[in-house]
Please model this.
Amino acid sequence: MEKLTLPLLLISLLCAQPSIAQDEAPADDWKSASSNQAGKEYPKVNSEGRVIFRIEAPEAQSVGVSFRDSNAFTKGEDGAWYGITRPLDEGFHYYTIMIDGSDVPDPNSMMYFGAMRWGSAVELPAHDQDFYTVKAVPHGQLREIYFHSESTDSERRAFVYTPPGYDQNPDQRYPVLYLQHGWGENEYGWGAQGCADVIMDNLIADGTTRPFIIVMTYGMTNEIRFGGLREFKVEPFETVLVKELIPYIDTHFRTLADQPNRAMAGLSMGGMETKQITLRNLDTFSHIGLFSGGSLSPDDLSDLEAFKAKNKLVFVSYGSREVEDGTRRGGDPEAATEALKAAGINSHYYVSPNTAHEWQSWRRSLRQLAPLLFTN
Amino acid sequence: MEKLTLPLLLISLLCAQPSIAQDEAPADDWKSASSNQAGKEYPKVNSEGRVIFRIEAPEAQSVGVSFRDSNAFTKGEDGAWYGITRPLDEGFHYYTIMIDGSDVPDPNSMMYFGAMRWGSAVELPAHDQDFYTVKAVPHGQLREIYFHSESTDSERRAFVYTPPGYDQNPDQRYPVLYLQHGWGENEYGWGAQGCADVIMDNLIADGTTRPFIIVMTYGMTNEIRFGGLREFKVEPFETVLVKELIPYIDTHFRTLADQPNRAMAGLSMGGMETKQITLRNLDTFSHIGLFSGGSLSPDDLSDLEAFKAKNKLVFVSYGSREVEDGTRRGGDPEAATEALKAAGINSHYYVSPNTAHEWQSWRRSLRQLAPLLFTN
Model:
């Protein structure tokens, strides 16, 4: 791999780019992103949260990246194209490279499913990344399974996290969290960019979370897997989840197969699904988690006392940049949480610091939710 | 998605392309490839094994694909670039798109790891594809696990296929096949493009194969995961496999943890690894499978009688296009198999029809090998 003199290269880039003034030179502590493909030096990230990309496109007229406000790419001394972003939030961000008007994945990045495609993303180091870092602790397993769905006439994929010790303790049974992705994402998200298995291994190792099973499946039933969110109807997925997947899990895994030991949570669209499905199935789910996906207030409940008798937990979270003006479409989630609490419901509200509608908010939300589950 | 009048488009493509004469017009029975991302119409494949690609790159000067002898891409009536390949073998092929000299993944393709990168591939229908098609049969699980490796001071990933019924039959123990990928590939290959889990589910469902566990891990120990094959030394991986992974599997899964119930097989480099490691560890492995990765003759055995006393099966396979001239570097695999058989060893040779050094040969090899394992 070719070695570049990075400071020299950057100066030449900066000279060509009026949008970064000389006195705003990026911090020169670039490190290869952890989301790179093995052996790839670029993209690199620095301590300000900037990302520098390197694309080999010798005959291209223009190269760019989908991060808004990012500098146009310029050719470096080695003939490759370089571009630097503005400082980004800690955590995980999808992106696309543009070569002469063509949107393509960055060949240097690992591939993740989001924004309705397998494509590129970059991982920015975070001050709290320890909780989703693979460590030498007992590990659970992330299992890819297929279950038969009568209602959709298909063999459907799900991922099942089983906690450490699952196979060694054949007499133990476990509660289950059904955990949903967002719109334009799929059943791979929580196990890949969501780090759900790693987060759980670490939480269980430090003794703060009770071992439980997590089940992640695709939250839509349209086979082409995209389309407008506005036309989306949750009922076909509700059938798959409640009538087909839950019975499959309860017969194929050692679950505690009753309402007190079954939770549902989801991010964004998955939160909206969680709210609709759990409220219609109070005898199936006792714990509810909404991550950047709406809130729950006493006004949502047709029968507050019935809900109170059956529900054990409501957890609502957002990224701080989503709630900076104090409100969200559909109301103030913090006020809704307080109102639920005043009504006697075990209700929790969490705001992820300095993050937006993005995976870092949702990793942190899972970390906050997990210790609260199945404890009462 | 824009609808194209395909015959018209093709005629305009053909006119511009002297390498396909008018009387060799491709068969007009194009279907979207099964390896496409959800909702993507292109690439399409036809009954001749040709592939047509469609790339949106409005400002590009040139677009191409890495299949040799393929026609240069030309702009279609809709402004996108189109290119058609020569007829390809049935099965699975890696490729790369070139846009103005930049090698990038096709944004329409699912992403697979091979040729040392996550990138594009296309699946051609095959006359025998039923054996690796997901069907409504009892399904096993493909489990992602991490195991601690002292020798490399790392938490290492493996995938473990457990057969249908594994969780429902807690008193049953299973034999284990350790199954390796090729050079430039990784531990994802057999579960993704290799379809190992689907092949096993189907073979077990039709009663021809005994249920067993398959373990797949990364077959090198260089963290950057590439480098010259010539400098490759198998010993560090042998330590990981024999001293670390096997003990982990035998304590974390319900294995039959003895030599008669342990097999190793691999493709290409994985076959070379299998040969070296099994011959040095006759007390660990009883069954040996080499797929496009060398052969085994009596000359390879320092002590034929000792081998005969311990080995239960030798299986060697190639794609027919690899052995068309009757020989392979390192000798004639069929003659070697016959010589082993004459020496009293349970030895099998298989040639995959009309395939080369590619996954279709290896899927078929697994299908042939599996029913022979752990039967005596």
User: Anything to note?
Assistant: The first strand of chain B starts at residue 31 and ends at 32. The CA atoms of residues 147 and 175 of chain B lie 20 Å apart. Helices of chain B lie at 6-15, 196-205, 235-252, 269-280, 304-310, 333-342, 359-369.
